[in-house]
Input
Amino acid sequence: MEDEKIKDNRFIDAKEQTDERMFDLTLRPQRLKEYIGQEKIKENLIISMQAAKERGEAIEHVLLHGSPGLGKTTLAHIISKEMNSNIRVTTGPAIERAGDLAAILTNLTDGDILFIDEIHRLNKIIEEVLYPAMEEYALDIIVGKGPSARTLRLELPRFTIIGATTKMSLLSSPLRDRFGMGFRLNFYELGEIAKII
Output
């Protein structure tokens, strides 16, 4: 009987409960005005998003870098909400083959956001495929092998990539140069931490 009570006790149950998942989602800010700290970044994003909305276009590609826990993922989700866009989330290591990237990119629609966490861990082959997708919104696929191989170009919708990294030095220069905006998230000040708490 005592053993059954212990099993029901949440403190020793490692499995996440459904209500905890919902609570975690409600803790994250949903809009820029709710996001505490990073004032300069917020100012720049507001201007950029407003300009993109007025032009009827997707926001430029955004690179977020800084230490873990500073809000890169949260900021990516806020940008998608502010732009009224769908967001697809993946990580650099999860995209193993060019086909994986092609599947993700061809399923995007105009204005969608692709958030790539740990973007510094993309392999070089994937990066090469990503360059024309970011610059020209096109995907070059090689069909066949040897002398009969040919290149097929697929047009992609106008989308935005938001990349996040904790290790900016590991990001290749050609990839870094393809982001229209880059922001370094700084540590929070005591007053900001107090507001968050």
Notes: The chain has eight helices and seven strands. Residues 22 and 186 are 28 Å apart (CA to CA).
